[in-house]
Each structure stands twice: as structure tokens, then as C-alpha cells.
Amino acid sequence: MTCGNSTYLDDHGPPPQKVLPFPSQVVYNRVGKCGSRTVVLLLRILSEKHGFNLVTSDIHNKTRLTKNEQMELIKNISTAEQPYLFTRHVHFLNFSRFGGDQPVYINIIRDPVNRFLSNYFFRRFGDWRGEQNHMIRTPNMRQEERYLDINVCILENYPECSNPRLFYIIPYFCGQHPRCREPGEWALERAKLNVNENFLLVGILEELEDVLLLLERFLPHYFKDVLSIYKNPEHRKLGNLTVTVKKTVPSPEAIQILYQRMRYEYEFYYYVKEQFHLLKRKFGLKSHIRKPSPRPEFFIPSPLETEEPINDEEEDDEKWLEDIYKR
Fold this sequence. Notes:
Belongs to the sulfotransferase 3 family. The longest helix has 20 residues. The protein is an alpha/beta fold and about 325 residues long.
């Protein structure tokens, strides 16, 4: 028998470990002009409501990283308090390559021409958050560039309206390899592979409410109640401030040229859209029939869109989700 003061550990044993939800490491490497500012607004509300660690970055214009920068960023993300959701505009990072635990990735993309047009006018004229917003964002832009007609930019092959600048969405999924920035089959196929192996969900901005529903289903400890918050009139008022101003539509000829230049982007977009619709069918969500946009014959056909929920054989949803998390 020993004498002396007993400690808390003597009486109670070690304190119980914090039980983490699974997955507890999520990365949203958000694609520019694909609704990400709206989603980040929602995440700020959700992180306070559900108590997860929202890790954001002030770096908005550095998507390609050197090997050392990749290692440093992966280290910083991996040591964040869990459960965390890290978000930044950055091309896909392979954590396991540097000895880290691969997190679950999520993302949202949109029609490539619409994304390009939104970005073109946003860089010049900003959004409804402030009339001078564009001046702050691009203070050194020359007046002739700021007011450059979109048709002139496309038809006269200005760098901003040509490749490789138009090859924008695929590198977010292909990764940091130099070939990921070269428009072509290699980058396209690698991007598809990463979507299948590392992304829990890649949604389509045109169907944002369904994206939010699936995120709530797959990641409830992050996204529970997201749709009701999104539909709240107060949030809608905030969301409207992120709408780009002064957008104009290019001529049909210019649009066709953009389609040609962005053919790999479209092949990827329709691939992701098809996967997203398969996921919606699996969980009984309706797809709304939209008028198909005109596009050249080389594009892959649109996926079948269901009007009614489809109940296949009763599949164990939890088991199916588990399999995705194990990838």
C-alpha cells in the first residue's frame, strides 16, 4: 500500500479519446467559378453549427505547386485538428505519395463554356458585393483589356481565350504533374481515374440542390441541414451578392470555336455528369430534363436522365458508402 496524493488518472484512468466521425479528413479543392464561394459561405455556417474544423486559405491564385510546396501544404493539412474540412483553389494533391493519409475529396464543376464566361467577366467587373470589387481584384488590368469584346478575344485567338488557358477544369482532378496542364488524352484519363479513386463526390453546379442533398447523405457530420440553410432567404440574399455582373453572350460562331478548343474539358464534364446522375439514381433522386446545349458531334452523348426515382434491388447504402471510403 502506498501513501500520498492520488491523481485523477489513478482514480479514473486515462480520459476517453475523442471519437472522430468517419471520414474525419475532407478536402474540397474547389474549382474557380463553379459555385465555390456559395459553398464556402455554407461551410462557415455549418462548421459553427456542427463543430468541425474548417481550414481555409488566403491563397487564391496558386493552384500548381512545386514538390516542396506540395510537401509543406500536405503536412499543414494533415496536422490540422480533426475532423477537418480543408478548402482552397488547388490542383489535386496525392497525400499518399508523400507518406500522408489520403483524405476524402469533394468538388463541383459546371458547363465549361459557362465557367469560362463567368470568369472572363468576373475578372473585369467583379460581382454585386461592390462596384469597385473588380478594381481591387485586377488593379493592373489595362482599360483596353478590361473592356475587350469577348468575341474579339475568341475569334482573334487572344491568349485568355485560347489553350492552354482554356484547359482549366481537368488539372484540378489530374493533379500536379506537368502533363496535367497539357490539353490531351493523358490528362483527361488521369483526371477520370482520380475522380473514381479519390473523390467521394464530384457534383454539377447546374444541379446544386441535388449536390447538397448527396453531401448531406454522405457526410452528415459536415453537411447535415445544408439544404435548409441554403434555401433560407437570408442565405439566398448573401448568395446573390456572388453573382458576376455585366455578363454578355458571345456570338454562335465564337461559342462553336470555344467548344472546339474545350473538347477535352467537355468530355470530362459529360463523364462527371454521367457519374453524378448514376449516383442520383442509386439514391432515388429525380433528374430534371433540360434542353441539351448545342454541341459538336464529337462530344459524348448526354447521360440518360430519369424522371422518377429508380428502386433497384435493395442495396445496403451504408455498405456502398463504406466501399467508397475504403478507396
